[in-house]
Amino acid sequence: MDTSQFEHAFYAGNFLGAILYGFELVIYFMILRALFHKGNKNTPLRRRFCAIYSTVMLLLSTIPLSCNAVWGSEMWITHREGPGGVPGYIQTHLSVWYQTLASSSVIAGVFLGDALLLYRLFVVYGRLRSVIAVPLLAYLVAFGLAVLQVVLSGLPNGNFFGNEISKIGVSYYSITICLNIVVTILICARLFRISNVVADVLGREKAKVYTSVAAILVESAAPYSLLGIMYLIPYGLKSPLAILFGQLWTKMSVIAPLLILLRVVNGSAWRDDVMTRPRTPLAFASTRASTTVDVCPLSSTDDTLKGEYRTSHIHLKDLSDDT
Q: What angle separates helix 163-202 from helix 204-211, to the nearest 10 degrees?
């Protein structure tokens, strides 16, 4: 069995994954710094949730990184002269206990990240339950398939890339990644659709916080979905390159929700009240006339986005010259 392509992909995936792990650490400490900053306006409950969630996600990302490092050293250093050499070690140790632990950690991280993404979809669409009904069903089905895949691949002589397990894996990854893609498209479509309305309500500069390209990419976790597609194709084709893109995808499954949390703790993430803020009176005065403009934001409903403003009131009053 020629495992050279697998080894190259595994080696590259480890290093690129370590680089992305460095980004995770930076984002994690930025979140903690923002949470415990003196002027932070988040509620104690939100601060507690963000601190615990980000810490758990970082731990779930650390476990597979460490397990892959150990497995690589055992494969290339400790047992390279063993029976069958490196190919023999790969065949007989794919289901070693710490690799099963790594797979379990990856699945837990993916589903915690997807849960946050579903919640963001719920918030962006004004808490419409009908919007998340189908994505939630897909989420639960994918979770069941993921558990089945980990259990079977962790059995003695189990092979994560074997024919039977890979069939389950293709179904699981297809549902999960398609779920990511659908949620990403829905969030992008919503934010693009209301971008002009938000700009009219808040002003162009302030609206960029919610509707700029960067903000939409982060809110929708678009890079996460893109890497998911790049992983699904080689995995379905049983290509050794799957191990490379798989490691990058799992790291992005942690980075994407951490970036969303960073926007939440900094107060720049999409909130329920963005489209329902109180009126903002703008007054312009001169020696001849005074103008008062009441800007009334969009009225949000639970079923559709209304693209019209309430009637704006403009009152002009001429001032007389000392008469």
A: 170
